[in-house]
Structures are given as structure tokens and as C-alpha cells.
Amino acid sequence: MDVLTAARLQMEVSLGFHMFFAALGIGMPLLMLIAEWRWLRTGREHYRDLAKTWGKATALTFAVGAVSGTALAFELGLLWPSFMALAGGVIGPAFALEGYAFFIEAIFLGLYLYGWDRLSPRAHWWTGVPVAVSGMMSGVLVLAANAWMQAPGGFELAADGTLAGSDPLAPFRSPAWLHMALHSTLSCYIATGFAVAGVYAAGMLRGRRNAYHRAALGIALAVGGVTAVLQPLSGDWSAREVAKYQPAKLAAAEAHFETSSHVPLMIGGIPDEDGNVRFALHIPNALSIMVGRSPETVITGLNDFPRDERPPVAITHIAFQIMVAAGFAMIFVALWFGWARWRRRPEDRVLLAMVLAASPLGFIALQAGWIVSEVGRQPWVIYGIMRTSDGVTPQAGVPATLFGFTVLYLFLGVALVALLRGLTHYSGPTATEEDAHAA
Amino acid sequence: MQPELLVAGLGIVALVTYAVLGGADFGGGIWDLFATGPRRDAQRDAIAHAMGPVWEANHVWLIFVIVIIFSAFPAAYAALSIALFVPFHLVLLGIILRGAAFVFRAYSPQSARGAGSGPAGRRWGAVFGTASVITPVLLGMCLGAVSSGGIRVDEGGVSFAGGVPAWLEPLSLFMGALALSLCAYLAAVFLANETDGDLREDFRTRALLAGTAVVALSAILLPLVRRDAPHLWTGLTAGAATPILVPGVIAALLSGWWLRQRRYRLARASAVVQIACLLAGWALAQSPYIIYPGLTLEQAAAPRSTLLFILWTTPAGMALLIPSLWYLFRVFKGEHLALTESARD
Ligand code: HDD
Ligand code: HEM
Ligand code: HEM
Questions:
Q1: In terms of pTM, does the model score above 0.80?
Q2: Looking at this predicted complex, what is its ipTM?
Q3: Is A106 in contact with B313 (Cβ distance < 8 A)?
């Protein structure tokens, strides 16, 4: 394996791994705050138990998120030294501000987790608020760095290609930042909400239909469902912005080759790199309408780009389809669940099975979406400025470190899942009275 | 003053804080691994209780150091990443395993009685302890490599001067050992402050042991620095660093003496001063180089606007952080008795 491929894979493995925990680190604190708030309002014990269990889950995932994030900060340099030599000074401010957000998050998470007996209930709830807010802000701030790589600006290069000057707010002025930050933040709540809901749906399917499980399911799907319904709106905004500053990415995501108006929207399909798409369903004019709100809108196709400036079409297109399909599937489940709760029906087995089936979809869509963004940016690491192949390290050892990190992350992932399962196992005993009541 | 010097100063402050707080955490892991005697479990519990709420926050200082290097001195970050590719990866392995193992142990089944009492917990405990020993050694080796003159940065790229990787030269190896014993010393002094009775005596003995190792290693390192890194030697003994190093050495000796006298608070305070002076002195002796002899701070610096941004945002960030940190430490480190009490129940 050559160094470039290995470095890309190592980046992907590390970021993909980190993203699981980052998403949970953004989503879990919100769930735990809602549960604890319900406890404060109603005094019903199972809400406090939930908040405690979710707090423990947050502690476990936060720790892994923190160490994998530390690894990323090193890996940016270890794998892409020339990229960092140029970009470090520009995207640094985004990471510097993110550092403060982490710090606040780590401090208040310590208070929240270990403070149950030391703080008043109200004060305790308030220590959770900065955890949720700064978790979200970490994501929003770090996305500025990625947004700048997608749509760079606000810097000058010297004659020798080094950085001559830069606007310290350049990452935040990137036109990609706001829509990416919104879309990605929503995706973290969706992914967390659906994943957590699945755990409790599974419990209920195994007969644990107590108040504890119903409350957990309700909170998780309220968070996941509301954000899932909003996601297509934010995705539409992203797509229209991408059409402006990275037409090649949109074209690859849609497998669109010939520049034209009246472009149909393609559903499914397997494209090759020459412009043939097999097995696709076409909705006439839909893409033009989505991007420009009119069938007359002209959309640039891949054939307008030289071959060595096109992203891999098949991966980008398929990942995009997976994201969108998963998104609509989750909306369907969320609406069904909302309808059942609204009619005050107990969740039947079919609905619970659907929730269980949908539980990995949030994370699948999230990873797929990142593939769209990052692979769709290729062959550039800084769009239009630096090619990925020029950013990579001269060190020959990358395939070995790739192997090592993959094994390490697999091992940690398995161990973590086992521990998280342990956490949900001893849950629920205090809800037995409610059980009797419900039965 | 040039902004790059101010930013470098900030970096050193972050490094010192990491060395003190993160170093004590590593040390906690070291003593967890080497917990012995009749109070073995009590020692481990005390360590876990002292670290639990704060270790995460303590390690964010490393991230600050990294972020400052890559945003303010990107050329140096790139060069270090190439030269120290192997040890940095090993450091990451250590950091990842350590952090994960620490929480995994705390949340392992059968650990309700105390940290790591079940078999799974014990295994994670061993991982945690081992990673706590290896990581500071590697970090010390990296620091050694940066100042030994063994990393060459020039037009041709990055290489090692002697053919041997700079982080494997004797100077770097002894720096690694020194870092390890400093961490062990700090942790034992901190833990002696946070415990009482026999347990406190245990940690006092450990601190005295580690302190002896620090003195012995320093005695070996001095002639080694003089032989292998003459520029650093000059900086330390004749340059701007001397006025800082002298109080550092005095603080080190005082700390040991106070420990003998069982004056724990004073021992702790002087241990912190000792670390701060050592690192600040090292930085001054090293300046204006960030990687000797190829790269000065000025050559490696990012555009002025970035440097100013880092400087200007620091007070605002600190205004958020310092009260939060103060609150954290007040709630959990208020008085040691509360901790030992909760360690018992
Ligand atoms: C739960 C996750 C999830 C779901 C349901 C969706 N997305 Fe998404 N999408 C992401 C999670 C995501 C992401 C992982 O968070 C990305 C990667 C980068 C980013 O900003 O968000 C992303 C990127 C992304 C991009 C590329 C943006 C860029 O590179 O700048 C577009 C055009 C869309 N999405 C569009 C959509 C549409 C039209 C959806 C309709 C349902 C949709 N997404 C659902
Ligand atoms: C602030 C956030 C991010 C930064 C600074 C960043 C940076 C980078 C860099 C430097 C590369 C290597 C160069 C390249 O191949 O283009 C890369 C590639 C990649 N990243 Fe990101 N990334 C970020 C977020 C993410 C996330 C969250 C994911 C996934 C969950 C992701 C997935 C990938 C993938 C799949 C590649 C490989 C693309 C390819 O080589 O085809 N990235 N990223
Ligand atoms: C190259 C890109 C990235 C780098 C270098 C990076 C770096 C880090 C670091 C150093 C931490 C640990 C902080 C601590 O110790 O508390 C961390 C945690 C975190 N990161 Fe990232 N990160 C990257 C990408 C992302 C992305 C794309 C997101 C979200 C959209 C994100 C969201 C978070 C969150 C929420 C945390 C808090 C820890 C947790 O909850 O697990 N990060 N990251």
C-alpha cells in the first residue's frame, strides 16, 4: 500500500472513530439534561435513574472521544505535515477556540458526574448545561476548520508557496461554515437519539415495558425525531451552497456528467467514471428545481472538469444516496412514533421493531455524509489550492501505523460496546411499581 | 516584544500546567501499577478518587500545547511530526490506551466496591498503569530530541544528524527517565496531601524514593547535556535561564526536605515551583530556537495576525476557564478528608 492511500485511510479511520464519540458527546448531554429536568419537575425516580445512566454513558464515550480527538490533533501533523505547514496558521484559530469549548466541557462533566451527592439538585442540573452547550460548540467551531478546507479564503501566499498573511477569522468567513455547522450538529442529535432509542426499544421488545423504558424511548426519539424532520431542510441548503462553491462535488454526489438545465434527480444507481449510470430512477427536472428553484437552472456536470480534478464519482454518489435514504427512513419512523404517542397508543411490537431497525441509521447517515464531503472534495485537501498528494508525509511507515490504529480502535470499540451494554443491564429496577400499575 | 515570543511564552505556561497536572495524573497511574503492601487496594482507591473528576480537564492542557504549536509555529509542527513520527505515534497509543483504560476500569462490572476489583477491571488497571509509565518516558524523550541538536531541518527536509533517531540518543533516554521520575514524585506528593494516616505514610515513602531518583538522574544528565548539547549547557549555565534555574534547584531541594519533615503542603507548593522553573529554564536556554539548530521561533512563526488572534483570545478564554476550574477544584479538592471519607464508603 502506498503512503498516500495509507494516510487517507488512517485519517478516515481516526475521524470516523472520533465522529462516533463526538456525536454522542454532543447528543448524550442533551438527553441527560432532559431526563434530569423531568425528574426535577415530576420527582419521579426513573427520570433520575435515566439521567444517571446516561451520565455514565456520557463519561465513557467522552473519555474515548477525548483521547481519539487528541490523537487527531497529532495526526493532522503526522500524516499531513505539508498541509499543516500551510494551513496550520489559518485554521489554528478554529482549533484554539474549540480548545476552550472542550475545556469547559471536561470541567463541567467532571462536576456533573461526580457531583450528584455534593451539589443541590438544581445546581447539579445547571452543571450539565455547559456540558451540552460546549459540546455543541466544539463541533460548530471545529467545523470551521473543515469548512475552510472546502471553501478556502482569507489568506495570501508568498512566492515560494508559504503562507504570507491570513485573516484570523478566515475559517469563520468560509461560505461553507454555517450550513455545515447546522447540518452536522443536527446529524449528531439524530444519530444519538436514534441509537439510544434502539437500546430501549430492544429492552421493551424483550418484555421490559416499564415507565423507565418508555421515558427513555420518548426522550431519545423526541430529540432524534425533531432533528430528523428538520434535516432535509438543512441538507437542501447545503446542497445549494455546494453547487455554488464546489460544483464538482455536487455533480459527483448526483452522478451528473453533462452540464445542462432541466436536470433530473437520480435516485439510486451505480455510476462509473465515464458517465454511465445503471439502475437509477429519474425524477424529471427535480435537481434543477432543488438547486435553483426553477427547472431552467443550469447545473455544471463533471465533464466540465479535467479528469484529474474530479472526485471519485461512485463512492460519492452512493454515499450520498445512503445518507438521504437513511434520513427519510428515520423521518418515517419518527412520524409513526409521534403519531402513536399523540394518540396515546402503547408502542406495539411492529413500531418497536422499526425503531430498533432504525437505530444505526443515524450513524450510518452521518458517516456517509462525511464521505460525501471529504471524498467529494478530492483530489484537493484544500479545495483548489493544495492537492492531497502534496500534503502527505514523506514517512514510509504509514501503512504500519494505519494497521496499528485500526486494530486499536476496533479493540476499544468492542470493549466499549460491552461496557455500555453492562450499563443498560442494571437499569430499571426502581420502576417496578409502575410496571404493576401499567399491567 | 515580538508576538511570537509572547505566544511561545503562552505555550510554555500551558506546558508547565500540563507537566504539573497531567504529570501528576501519569504519576497516579505509575503508583497504581506499583501499588504494593497491605494497603494496596486503598492506595489504588485513593488514586482513582483523586483523579476521577479532574483527569480529563488536566489532559486538555496537552491539547492547548499542540494547538499553540500548530497554529503559531506550523513549520515547527510539520518538522516535528516528520522527525518524531514514531515516538509521537507511540505517545498517542499510550494516551489512548491510558484514558480509555481508566474509565473502562471505573465502569467495569464488579467495580462497585472500588476501582478495578473485578477481573476485567484488574486487566484494564494493568493497561492503565503500563500506559502511564510508557507515555511520560516517550514525552521526555521527544523533549530531549528537540533540544539535543539531533533533528536537522534544512532545504532538503527533515533528517537526523547522527544517523540515529534523535529521540533514541542517550540524552533523550535520560530525559525520558527524568520525566518519569518527576511524574512519580509529583503524584506521590499530591497524594500524600490528599490522604491521611498510614496511607499518607505510604505515599510519603514513595515520594522520597522518586525524589531520590530525580536527584540521581539530574546528576547524570548534567554532564551529558554538557557533552551532547553544548548550546543548551551554555544557555542553562550562562544565559538568561540561570536566574530561573537557581530558584528551581532550591525549590527541588526544599520540597524534598519538607517532605521529610511531613510538611506536605509546603512540599507540594515547592514541587510545583520546581517543575515550573525547570521547564521555563529549559525553554529560555533553548530560545530563540524551537528546534535547534535549524528553526528559530521567528522562522517557524505563523502570520502576525494569527499570533495576535491567539494572544487576544487568551484573556477571554481564561475568563471562562479560570472560574470554572476554580469551581471544579473547590468542589472536589476542598479538603482531603472529604475525599478519604468518600473513598471508604
Ligand atoms: C444523521 C445524519 C444525516 C442525515 C439524515 C442527512 N445528512 Fe447530509 N450530511 C451529514 C449527515 C446527515 C453530515 C455527516 O453531518 C455531513 C457531512 C459534512 C456536513 O456538514 O454534514 C453531511 C453532508 C451533506 C452535504 C454536503 C455538504 C458539504 O460538503 O458541504 C449535502 C449536500 C447533504 N448532506 C445533504 C443532505 C440531504 C439533502 C439530506 C436529506 C435527507 C441529508 N443530507 C440527510
Ligand atoms: C474539522 C474537521 C475535519 C478536518 C480538519 C479534516 C481533515 C482532513 C484531512 C486533512 C484529510 C486528508 C486529506 C484528504 O484526503 O483530503 C481528510 C480526509 C478525510 N476525512 Fe476529513 N476532516 C475533518 C472531518 C472529517 C470527519 C468528521 C470525517 C468522517 C467522519 C472525515 C472523513 C474523512 C475521509 C473519509 C477522508 C479521506 C478522503 C479521501 O482520501 O478520499 N473528515 N480530512
Ligand atoms: C480534524 C479534526 C478534529 C480534531 C483535531 C479534533 C480534536 C478533538 C480533541 C483534541 C478532542 C478532545 C477534547 C477533550 O479532551 O475534551 C475532541 C473532542 C471532541 N470533538 Fe473533535 N476533533 C476533530 C473533529 C471533530 C468534529 C468534526 C466534530 C463534530 C462535528 C468534533 C466534535 C468533538 C466533540 C463534541 C468533542 C468532545 C468530546 C466528546 O464529547 O467525546 N470533533 N476533538
A1: yes
A2: 0.86
A3: no
